[in-house]
Amino acid sequence: ESASLRYHHLPKVRRSFSDNQGNMWLLGPHNLSVVTFKNDDVRFFEMGDNREVRSVLHTNDGGIVLGNIDGYIVRYDKQGKRESFLSPSGRWQKERVTFSKNIYVLSEEEDGTLWIGSKGEGLFIVKPDGSVRNYRHSASDAFSLNSDAIYDLRRDTKGRMMIATFTGGLNIAVEDEAGELKFIHCGNKLKLYDGK
């Protein structure tokens, strides 16, 4: 049995065909996908379970970091060998450990700082020294995240981190005068944006 066929959540394919260029076209219930075969090597990264991987990060040093719905964040070297797991304390370790729950997105800064978005536990920022900050929604703080379901992270052209949430829409991370991170969204300064 192939390792790649052990997944429990295989996509539904209603129809498929190959074109003259050797591409395989897959028609699903709500999408059309094309699979292109090149002569490049394809690597399989074993996380040790068959759970859904939600985030893939190509690191500054050429490695790969994967995050899955069980909360594992796993680092691989350039050759694809599993090196370590990120612990909740912000340290990489050999022993298998979960970082949080439902890791949906990973992003890395030039200095090695990791931004980690989870579904349900908000945003984590892990500095290269191992310090960890967790940002979550707080009903008493209008400038906290407006949702703890983080689905994507991207820098805009002005260098601001844009945070896409499932239930709150766009959040923009900005530093206040004291250097603390605050979040601009439809519940405070983005009044014309309703988050839907």
Describe this structure in words.
The protein has 196 residues and is mainly beta. Helix content is 0%, strand content 38%. The chain has no helices and 16 strands. The strands form four sheets. A five-stranded antiparallel beta sheet has the order 4-5-6-7-8, with no helix packed on it. A four-stranded antiparallel beta sheet has the order 9-10-11-12, with no helix packed on it. It has a four-stranded antiparallel beta sheet with strand order 13-14-15-16, with no helix packed on it. The protein is globular, with a radius of gyration of 19 Å. The chain starts with 14 loop residues before the first strand and ends in a 12-residue tail after the last strand.
For the structure shown, list the relevant keywords.
single chain, 196 residues, mainly beta, five-stranded antiparallel beta sheet, four-stranded antiparallel beta sheet, 16 strands, 0% helix, globular
Please, what is the average pLDDT? 86
Biggest sheet character: 5 strands, antiparallel
Gyration radius, rounded: 19 Å
Our count of helices gives 0
* Spans where pLDDT lies below 50 across 5 or more residues: 1-8
Give me the secondary-structure topology:
Layout: E1 15-18, E2 24-27, E3 32-35, E4 53-58, E5 64-68, E6 73-76, E7 82-86, E8 92-93, E9 103-108, E10 114-118, E11 123-126, E12 132-135, E13 150-155, E14 161-165, E15 169-175, E16 181-184
Antiparallel strand pairs: 1-2, 2-3, 4-5, 5-6, 6-7, 7-8, 9-10, 10-11, 11-12, 13-14, 14-15, 15-16
